Amino acid sequence: xxxxxxxxxxxxxxxxxxxxxxxxxxxxxxxxxxxxxxxxxxxxxxxxxxxxxxxxxxxxxxxxxxxxxxxxxxxxxxxxxxxxxxxxxxxxxxxxxxxxxxxxxxxxxxxxxxxxxxxxxxxxxxxxxxxxxxxxxxxxxxxxxxxxxxxxxxxxxxxxxxxxxxxxxxxxxxxxxxxxxxxxxxxxxxxxxxxxxxxxxxxxxxxxxxxxxxxxxxxxxxxxxxxxxxxxxxxxxxxxxxxxxxxxx
Length: 249
Description:
This protein is α+β, with helices and mostly antiparallel strands. It has 2 domains: 2-61, Arc Repressor Mutant, subunit A (Orthogonal Bundle); 73-248, Beta-Lactamase. The protein is 49% helix and 19% strand. The chain contains 8 helices and 8 strands, in the order H-H-H-E-E-H-E-E-E-H-H-H-E-E-E-H. It has helices spanning 2-16, 23-30, 34-46, 63-93, 135-142, 146-153, 169-182, 224-248, and strands at 50-52, 59-61, 96-103, 106-113, 128-130, 185-188, 195-203, 209-218. It has a 6-stranded antiparallel β-sheet with strand order 5-4-3-8-7-6, sandwiched between helices. Helix 1 crosses helix 3, helix 2 crosses helix 3 and helix 4 (63-93) packs across helix 8 (224-248). The protein is elongated, with a radius of gyration of 22 Å.
């Protein structure tokens, strides 16, 4: 843990530096021995977080940091663009609306607008849901390229969360084909008993799925029949979000 903290501290120092910075300067500002600084910078450089100029031997921010920054900017734009559409879904349905992105082997919620009703579903940005047992997760998994989806499938634990959770890999594959063709996924209490949701994909200007949006509520209120009746409205709202994202480039 100490090595991780020191590496992050050095990475931050390189980011804050006015131009390229040398090991001696970083040692002085961090209070770490020159040898320690060199070892940690070598590890960061090997992973692309920093880059050493072969002529001056000084360090600047590496390509990995720029990739991360670009992803943050894209996601920030996605969140800013999505918020009014999530609110529109809440106004239309009376249920909570959520947006999730693929985060490793899970769906991570990045935005949430709560229902105004007393009995409602609530999550927070940063919470994660299993790909095989959530509406957003199934949408994200179903819309991956074939090789990427299979590579991820073999890593999933397919843990049972409720009696309705799909825990058989072949059954999940069949379900994902249905989700991909239909353009939406249902979660009928597969992650939490008594909680239902319907989820649809969010696409960028190139047609790639960049997120999933769900409407969720108590199963007693958000029945399969009601979810089906709400689907055209949900798809209309999210198609307009996708058009808006495409216009932003």
